[in-house]
C-alpha cells in the first residue's frame, strides 16, 4: 500500500517538475520582441473570416498595434508593418487611422517607399481624409527633396473636404520651393473661382498674390543672378535688368507696391516683405539604430 | 391559432429553462463586456473595435442559440417521444411547427435585446453619451434579429426532417455558408459555372444582413439593408412553410 502511494507521489512530483521545466522554456519565448510570423493574404483572410472581413481587419489591427508598441521594436525591425497594414486595409479600406499610423512610422524607420505606397493607397480609398495626402506631401519634401511632388500632394490634401484653411499655404510653399509657382497660381485661381464666402475669398486672394509674386520674382531673381555674375554687385535698381536686356519688362507688384532687389540679390515687394526661403539641399544624418535617417533640423 | 400560440408559449418557457440557452446568453454577455477590454488594447479607433467585436459576439451567440436550440425543437420532441401525445390532441402538425418556431423566435429576440442593451451600455459609457445608439446601431441590431430569425427557421426546417444532431450539423453548415455568400457572389461574377449561382439562391444571404460596417462608420442603414431585411423575412417564412410541408408528410411512427 505504501509502495503504491510512494509511486503515486513520485509520478506527481515528476509530472510537476516536467511541467515546470516546460513552463520555463515557454518564458524564453516571451523574452523576444513581439513579431508577426506570417501575414496571410487578404483573399485568404476574406474566406477564413466567414463573411467578416472587417473583424479580420480589426484583429490584424490589434496585432499591428502590438507590433508597433513593443519597446524593443528596433531590435526586431519593421519589415512586417507594411504587409500587416496593407492586408488589413485590403479587408477594410475605410480604416483611415491604420494608413495614417503606418505612413508616419514607415517613413520614420527608413521605409519611405512603403510609407508612400500606403499613404497613396489611403488617399485613394479615403479622399476626404486630409491627413493622408498631407503626410505624403511631407514625405516628398522631407525625405525625397521632391518639392513639386510635395506640391501636388499638398494640393490634393488642400482640396479634401476636411482640410484646414492653412493647407493651401503648404501647397503654395511646396510649389514655390519646387520652382513651380505657376502651378500654385493655377491651383489658387481655381480655388478662388470656387470660393463662395468672403472670408475664404480674402484668404485665397492673399495666397494668390503671394504665388504671383513668387512666380514673377523667381524669374527676376534669375535675371538678378545673371547681372551679379557680370558685375559682381547690384543691380542698384530693378529697372537695370530691363535696360541690360535680361528681362523684357518688370511686372507689377501683385500687392500694389514696387518690386526691388534686396542686398542678397532677391526680388521683394515694398508692400509685402515676405518671400519663401530657397530650399536647402537634403541633409540626411547617418542612420543610427532606431533612427530613421531623420533630416537634421 | 390558439393552439399554435399555446405551443409558442410552452416553447418560450422550455427554452428559457434550458442550460444551453442560459449558458450561451451568459457567455454572450461576457463576450460583449470583454469587447470593452479588447478596445483598451488598441491605438486610437477604440469605438471601431468595441462596435465590431461587440456586434460580432452578439451574432455568434445568437446564431449558436438559433442552431442548437432550433435543431432540437421538433426532432428532440420526436426522440423523447413527447410529440405523439401533443399531436393526439386537436393540434394540426403545421400549427405545431409554427408554434415551435414562434417560441424560438421570441427567445432569440429576447436574447438579442439583452445583448443589445449590454453593448449599448458599453458604447454609451465609452462615448460618454448616447450618440453611438442612433439609427446605425438600431439598424445593425434589427438586421441581426432578422439574421437570427432566418437561421432559426432553417434549424426548424432541418429539425422537422431529420434527427437533432443532423439538424444541428446542417443548420451550422448553412449558417456558415450564409456568411460567405458575398464571396460566392464574387465567384459567380467571375464567370464561374452555375454551381455558385445555385448556391447563391439556395443558401440564405446572411452576409447582406451584417451591418458591422454601417455601425463602425456611423452610416444609417441603406435601402439595400432594408431590402435585405425584407429578403431575410421572406426566406425565413419560405423555410418555415417548407418545414410545415415536410412535417405534414413525415411518418412519425
Walk me through this protein's architecture.
The complex is a heterodimer of chains A (297) and B (253). A two-stranded antiparallel sheet of chain A has the order 1-2. The longest helix of chain A has 34 residues, at 198-231. Chain A has a domain at 32-126. In chain A, 62% of the residues lie in helices and 2% in strands. In chain A, helix 5 (81-91) runs antiparallel to helix 6 (96-108), helix 6 runs parallel beside helix 8 and helix 11 packs antiparallel against helix 12 (198-231). Chain A is mainly alpha-helical and 297 residues long. Chain A contains 13 helices and two strands; from the N terminus they run H-H-H-H-H-H-H-H-H-H-H-H-H-E-E. Chain B starts with a helix and ends with a helix. The radius of gyration of chain B is 19 Å and the shape is globular. Chain B contains eleven helices and no strands. The longest helix of chain B has 35 residues, at 93-127. With 253 residues, chain B is mainly α. The model of chain B has no long low-confidence stretch (mean pLDDT 87). Helix content of chain B is 81%, strand content 0%. In chain B, helix 2 packs antiparallel against helix 3 (46-79). Chain B has one domain (2-249). Classes of the chains: A mainly alpha (297), B mainly alpha (253). The A-B interface holds A 46-47, 50-52, 54-55, 58, 61-62, 65-66, 68-69, 94-95, 97, 101 and B 38, 41-45, 48-49, 52-53, 56, 176, 178-183, 206-207, 210, 212-213, 216-217.
Name the features.
heterodimer; A: 297 residues; mainly alpha; two-stranded antiparallel ribbon; 13 helices; disordered C terminus; B: 253 residues; globular
